[in-house]
Amino acid sequence: MRIRNLVGVIFVCVLSAGAGIAATLDDVQARGKLNCGVNTGLVGFAAPDSNGEWAGFDVAVCRAVAAAVLMDASAVEFLPQTGKTRFTALNSGEVDMLSRNTTWTFSRDVDLKFEFVGVNYYDGQGFMVPRDLGVSSATELDGATVCIQTGTTTELNLADFFRSNTMNYEPVPIETNAEARQQYLAGSCDVYTTDASGLAASRATFENPADHVLLPEIISKEPLGPLVRHGDNVWGDIVRWTLNALISAEELGITSGNINELASGTNNPEINRLLGSEGNLGEMLGLDAEWAKRAISAGGNYGEIFDAHIGESTPIGLARGLNAQWTNGGLLYSPPFR
Amino acid sequence: MATISAPPKASFALSMLLNDTRYRSYTFQFISLFLLFVAFAYLGSNLFRNLADAGLNISYDFLGEPAGYDINQRLIEYTSQSTHMRATVVGVLNTLLVAFLACLSATILGVVAGVLRLSRNWLISKLMAIYVEAFRNVPVLIWIIIIFTIMTAVLPAPRAFRGDDATASMIFESIAFTNRGVYVPSPVLGSGSLAVVLVFVLSIVAVFFYRRYAKKKLYSSGRLLPVFWPSLSLLFLPSIFAFFVLGQPVSLEYPVLKGFNFAGGWTVRGSLIALWFALAIYTGAFIAENVRAGILAISKGQTEAAASLGLRPNRIMNLVVLPQALRVIIPPLISQYLNITKNSSLAIAVGYMDITGTLGGITLNQTGRAIETILLLMLFYLLISLSISAIMNVYNKAVSLKER
């Protein structure tokens, strides 16, 4: 009798399946917070400001999505990820989306089963050298010691670049941006290489930024963008079109200053559709009509976000370059809202 | 009159599994084991189910694909076109190199510090106490970073060696200490150098046999042959003789400043030095305590008995105390060696490309195969650690007390 009880107790231990990972939108809304994976600290892109609030170009995308989905741009839990942890974090469901200057590549998209929803910064790998090294081109770097941030596509680009130019180099792998900075400034490497935007961001924090030059060669294409997991197209669409809304808003002249005025109705049907006074785009997305209005109000349109965090008026001082609207000769081109 | 009949033969009943103390523990062990299996099966099935849900699979095919990245310190031929597997092997060799160097230096440092801490000289014993307490009680990662930072900040960059107004110069015109590492001359083996190397190897064997002969002589006739000077001359004189007779076939290649860096000779990179020194002095402090414990475990009577026989203090230490103390020292020493090997995985802090840096770092990143690489990494560390354990256990058996 007691034996039977015991056996019963043992079989109470029932195997239960792992929780499904579909329907991210429902999870986020039930939680009331968006879990967003960001950089561990890259000034301008994602770093806590003096009040401990996360701010930056990548952070703004997270806030726009939170505003669209949760009606509150501050309902974001920022989970800093290193180059190593980011993909596991996204795959395991620890974060709902990753906005962490991540390069869109074939193998990440296809083999690692992610969905890149678009490009929010067109970047390329560059080199920074001290001015007094007297180097004016990356092709003069034969035999140099190069600091690389490990865990990125930069290692592969670097190996390819030196191999195709039949030059030798000594790679010094470095875990974080802060360590790279220390090594580079102490002269234990001649060159620091990473994405050109990252170099500009690092240089801005140097004591004498003018003593360092970025070499003209850009040796790779690095389209950086937010990404989500494969298999949840509804959630992928939300993040994709939130990013597109920010880009379209700039193209259409919607700014955080005039958005309330424009939202009450204009004679431009695309603005009306985007801001919800016409059509039912929000409903198609599973959100309400004003989703895009909230997303744009959160930090302004793409151009405003760029200028506020990494533009020429900031210490980072990046020009729009490739990241200008297509109408201004850049690559930013949002599909139409209709 | 009562006859005592044999007690009834208890037949095994199921209820005895709970009520009989002879069987009860088996029941509970079985239940525990079963629950353990269930827990692991749950974790495993959870992993595979989630991977399948995400459309991923466990595959080690990536090991055969080109790695695409370069590694600065490689003990075997490796280019960016080599496979991930080869990059892994490069990493394993780097791990083994730093672990070997650190184990060796930590042992020397530990034995010296442990013996000196028991010295009757107040200053020396206190200094050793400070060394042990300071290094044992600060995490090894901090020491790695401190040494590395000091090296990069204090030593000059290779640029400082250039030009007429160079602010730094090479020591003996052959060794350069820079913040990238230390550049030392390397031997170049010309024709006939094989003979010199062979002579040197033979000398080592000869020294070994001479010491055995001296020991035998001591035990059989009581005559103490000189050991140190004959060993030293046996070790070097034949080689030096062969070197000159064969027309100096081995020459040195000196490092010279070329382009951005020194070229030629051997480069001992700053990352290796920092990791090696930090592991050695940190673990050395622990070994010093093991050695001290081992020596204190030998009863004072042994020392006094040896002294009354007229042995001098250093002979008492070498012949009486240390051989017995080793029995106490070796088992904890094994775990210190394992600690060094495992702690070497902190290498990435200074960019030393050990196995965690290659397989568990760049390969993991480039392929995104986190679970596969981590499993492989665990397997490698397990194999390395178990091998060290096995070798040290053999040695422990050899020195342990033999009861006859």
Overview of the structural elements:
The complex is a heterodimer of chains A (338) and B (404). Chain A has 338 residues and is an alpha/beta fold. Chain A folds into 2 domains: 21-122 and 224-328, Periplasmic binding protein-like II (D-Maltodextrin-Binding Protein, domain 2, 3-Layer(aba) Sandwich), CATH 3.40.190.10; 125-220, D-Maltodextrin-Binding Protein, domain 2 (3-Layer(aba) Sandwich). In chain A, 37% of the residues lie in helices and 17% in strands. Chain A has helices at 2-12, 24-31, 57-70, 86-91, 106-110, 154-164, 177-185, 196-204, 233-252, 259-263, 269-275, 281-284, 291-299, 302-309, and strands spanning 34-39, 47-48, 54-55, 76-81, 97-98, 114-116, 121-123, 125-130, 144-149, 169-174, 191-195, 212-214, 222-224, 227-229. In chain A, strands 10-9-11-8-12 form a 5-stranded mixed sheet. Chain A has a 3-stranded parallel sheet with strand order 4-1-5. Chain A is globular, with a radius of gyration of 23 Å. By secondary structure, chain B is mostly helical. Chain B has a domain at 57-160 and 270-294 and 326-404: Orthogonal Bundle (MetI-like fold). Chain B is 64% helix and 6% strand. Chain B has helices at 16-19, 21-53, 84-117, 122-136, 140-154, 193-221, 228-245, 270-296, 300-308, 313-343, 355-367, 370-399; strands at 176-178, 181-184, 186-189, 250-253, 256-258, 261-263, 266-269. In chain B, β1 and β2 form a beta hairpin. In chain B, α3 packs antiparallel against α10, α4 (122-136) packs across α8 and α11 runs antiparallel to α12 (370-399). Chains A and B meet through α1, α4, α6 and β10 of A and α2, α5 and α11 of B.
